[in-house]
Automatic annotation (TrEMBL):
It comes from Vulcanibacillus modesticaldus. Gene3D superfamilies: Aldolase class I (3.20.20.70), Antifreeze-like/N-acetylneuraminic acid synthase C-terminal domain (3.90.1210.10). InterPro entries: AFP_Neu5c_C_sf, Aldolase_TIM, PseI-like, PseI/NeuA/B-like_N, Pseudaminic_synth_PseI, SAF, SAF_AFP_Neu5Ac, SAF_PseI/NeuA/NeuB. Signal peptide: none annotated. One of its GO terms (molecular function) is N-acylneuraminate-9-phosphate synthase activity. PROSITE patterns: AFP_LIKE. It comes from the Bacteria. This is Pseudaminic acid synthase. SMART domains: SAF. GO terms for biological process: carbohydrate biosynthetic process. Residues 294-350 form the AFP-like domain.
Length: 350
């Protein structure tokens, strides 16, 4: 499994989770707001900001047919046509350069999700360092090929994809000489429930495809994302907004600046806690060994007196014999006078 370098930043098990703030449509059609989102993302400590590169016309058709209407009663966008949704959510292409520039100024990596081949050409003109493939496009082999031949890292959401579909996508990328692949466990519902997220798929997917696995998380809060780190996620992507109260097409399942900062901190802690398989005393625990229980004389004793339950006990600290010898030493005698509080040792008894 390859470690991947994205714009000079290493991504892999030996590095803290790579945190991506997904802007999507949370700019609410304001460039000033888009730039403010980037500034808050930088303050939160994320590694990268991700955009989406499309127009309503590259995504769908402006027609009134029922096929193009969102009728799902559970959808956040019920009643809109696909064209209306994408018209509201898209990031104008002329905004991309100022957004990329602001990210660079703030030390953030900026990349994007292209939704058709024209978007790839456009992003190449901006020298984008990586590409994200959305769940709804992860079986679009023509688009996959177009991106793969750039040689740049592909971060691919896996929502709705079968193993066979993912296998075809991964093989397509590798057959074109590009092994810079990261798959993201994704549940393509908005918002997603923790109970329907199935992050146990992460280590299975890692073994199956021999590549890095991350999480594109649409649940509320940061709990699922933190848990994914323990299962091997090397990238976490979360939709990000200034405030959910401001509304917008993605606001309901986006996190705010304080939550994003907490995600950055806690995901790193989770990664640090993984460590290695370890038993016994660690170097940091060595000083605590003295507070384990051990066998101590609990009454003043004269030479030749017998050790009993009344004059020897297992107590803290740990300078005496180990408690496992308690039954062995009962009935034995002390060789000399000993005072209460003396740690018991083999030299004291016969």
């Amino acid at each position: 499994m390859n470690n991947i370098t994205l714009a000079g930043k290493k991504i892999g098990p030996q590095s803290p989770p790579f945190i991506v703030a997904e802007m999507s449509g949370n700019h609410n059609q304001s460039l000033d707001r888009a730039l403010a989102i980037i500034e808050e993302a930088a303050r939160a400590g994320v590694d990268a900001v991700k955009l989406q590169t499309y127009t309503a016309d590259t995504m769908t058709l402006d027609v009134d047919d029922l096929d193009f209407l969102i009728v799902d009663s559970n959808s956040l966008w019920k009643g809109k046509s696909l064209y209306q949704l994408y018209k509201e959510a898209y990031t104008p292409w002329e905004w991309h350069k100022p957004i990329f520039d602001r990210c660079k100024d703030l030390g953030l990596i900026c990349f994007s999700t292209p939704f058709d081949e024209t978007a790839v050409d456009f992003l190449e003109s901006l020298d984008v360092p990586a590409y994200k493939i959305a769940s709804f496009e992860n079986a679009d082999i023509s688009l996959i090929k177009k991106v793969a031949i750039t040689g740049k890292p592909l971060i691919i959401s896996t929502g709705m994809a079968s193993i066979a579909e993912l296998d075809e996508t991964v093989r397509t990328v590798r057959e074109l000489g590009n092994d810079n692949i990261i798959l993201l466990k994704t549940t393509s519902t908005y918002p997603a429930s923790p109970g329907n997220t199935n992050i146990l798929t992460i280590p299975h997917m890692k073994k199956l495809f021999d590549c890095q696995i991350g999480l594109s998380d649409h649940t509320l809060g940061i709990g699922v994302a933190i848990a994914s780190v323990a299962l091997g996620a090397t990238i976490i992507e979360k939709h990000f907004t200034l405030s959910r109260e401001d509304g917008g097409v993605d606001s309901a399942f986006s996190i705010e600046p304080k939550e994003m900062k907490a995600l950055v901190i806690e995901s790193k802690r989770a990664w640090q806690a993984l460590g290695k398989v370890s038993y016994g005393v660690t170097e940091k625990e060595r000083d605590s060994m003295k507070y384990r229980r051990s066998l101590y004389i609990t009454q003043n004793m004269k030479a030749g007196e017998v050790l009993t339950k009344e004059n020897v006990r297992s107590i803290r600290p740990g300078y005496g014999l180990e408690p496992k010898f308690y039954e062995v030493i009962l009935g034995k005698k002390v060789k000399k006078d000993v005072e209460k509080g003396t740690p018991l040792s083999w030299e004291l008894i016969y």
